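Pipeline run #58 for the internal structure catalog. This entry was flagged by the ingest filter as a single-chain record with no existing model, so it goes straight to prediction. Upstream metadata was stripped on purpose; only the residue string is passed forward. Reviewer on rotation: M.T. Logging verbosity set to normal.
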Amino acid sequence: MYRRKLERHLSQSIDEPMINLVSAVVAAQAGNASALQAVADLPPEALGAKLGSPYHIPLWMLETLVNELLATPKAKGLGVARTRLLRTDSFGTLRALQSILINLENAEDGIFLERHDVFYEMARIAQRQFPWQRGVANGPHIYRSVLLYGSGSAKEFFEADLGISVADFIKTGVCMYGGLARADFVPRERDLSKVNISPEVREAALARICVDLAEARRLAASMRRHKRHTGYSPSLMRDYPIIAFGEGGQRLRSPIPQLIMYRYTSGLYLDVVKGGPSVWTGIGKRFEGYVLEYLQAMMDEHTVTPEIEYGPKKSRYRTPDILVSKGPAVVAVVECKAKRMSFDARYADDPVAAASVGFEELAKGIFQIWRFFAHARKAVAGAPVLAANCQGIIATADSWLAMASNQAEDVIANAHALADAEGGIEPEDRREIAFCQIEDIEFALQTGDGDSFLTACREIASGPKKGFMLSVAHAASKGLERPFPFRDRMHELLPWIEDPQSELTRRAGICRVALRSNPDTDLQNQSTRSGNQPPFEPAED
């Protein structure tokens, strides 16, 4: 019933003004007073509205609505004679669509929960909502994304495949984000020569982040054809955050401009995922190196070193990737896992089966930590001395086990099977492991110190906050807000960011966010501008 009702309303809408309505509401929620003029029934109270406000619609729901809009066939005869059309100048329209969508998703949740434990649903909710709440407009996210997916072998593959540099691709994305954050649309042929972007480079970059309306509708319909849970269906906006309208695709619009920034940061992996083993090996090595350097910079009261070899000459072993010591003993060991989650891994009914390789990697990491603990206990030649409370940590580049207790149990069971097959790994060696996403590690260390970070790791592994996210467990912040340690390296990855006060970096938010210390939700708080015609401000080059 709710599915048919949503489709009926969306089939009676015109896409371009509906996209404008969404972008205007997004702008108002971001605090842009000009957006209030674009939507007739948005009062001043809507400005900067947060969760809980009657004038706030979560961005993850707006993303779903845009995808459903594009995937829904139009009613026959739409726009001819006196056909019914959905209003596109009223916040009430989006509010009504949101209400239908909530009812639809609740009904789908009920069907899912008849066959699955509620904790599976909690994990899917976390995968959908937490990235929006974290945001991507912060220095660690930008730097880390470009380092992992835009340097080394990944950079070489990207540039050979697309024909332009990673730096120019990101610069073009920054320009598009800057323009679409200030106006309801930008002309496709805007002159970017002031920032040394030629028309050829602009078009090459747009080929990866922009799609015309007809193709957007075809792709969205194909991606969402199987009618899986509406909120967990693939999103066209993650691939193509910009849609081209008009003859020749001359008007570029973005319903949620924040997704442009997502696309040229962590979304870079879409462009290098097909690069093969050499690319992914390089990403793994760079992630390991990033975590090592980050811990070294932020845990200066500890000694942080890379893995070492130990054992007799005929049977050599390696320690976990990173060793954290205080005094003569190792107080923590870290295994780094850079693998990204597939869409199915995030939202499948059985994530462990859908993404077995990724979850098996986590199990292997646990086993490697346990084996090292066993060797240290047995004083295998060269094995470091462990502290009694030495904590094992799995550091991941993605949110594999966020709020996912059932999946964690499966991973640990697989690790036990590996340990049983190895032999000699006793129950005392099989200590509880802390699963930490890199964003949470960054947050904990930039709002605390090494000791508070390790305390939080122990709490989520085996303490009163077992299974919590590290950032939540690390509530005992000491009131610190330490700067991101690599803020001065940004220009090494993106040479055009030499002047942090330049117009280009200001528009991108890079001047501000690259120097901020901890991940936040700036994307939802900054003064982003976009909306219905006329534009709030003229689109500038």
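catalog note: Residues 277-473 form one domain.
catalog note: The chain has three domains: 1-115, 135-275+487-520, 277-473.
status: ready for reviewer M.T.
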